[in-house]
Amino acid sequence: MSDLPACPRCGSPYTYEDGAQFVCPECAHEWNAADQQAAAEADLIRDANGNVLSDGDTVTVIKDLKVKGSSSVVKVGTKVKGIRLVGGDHDIDCRIDGIGAMKLKSEFVKKV
């Protein structure tokens, strides 16, 4: 069985190598391994210290955060358990005790 990657565009397993490029015969998409690694690295969500976050992690808030539409503030050092990673500007869906469901940016948390 071939150890070549499947096409990232159409998912075809029939890719072949042409020099430094990979080519898909079904959709004619061409890419190289460096592009594929860069895309995989870009999909990772990291905290303020550069640690990779994953679903279910526990994080700590590193900055006072005002809650939009409320007079509440999420204080520095607040622990958030069981985060869920989502795409978009605010990377983290979570529930904070005393405040409720929130979306946070990963740049304002650190992994515990």
TrEMBL record:
Pfam families: YjdM (PF03831), Zn_Ribbon_YjdM (PF08274). Residues 45-112 form the Protein YjdM C-terminal domain. SUPFAM superfamilies: Prokaryotic SH3-related domain, Zinc beta-ribbon. Residues 4-32 form the Protein YjdM N-terminal domain. Belongs to the YjdM family. This is Alkylphosphonate utilization protein. It comes from Alloalcanivorax marinus.
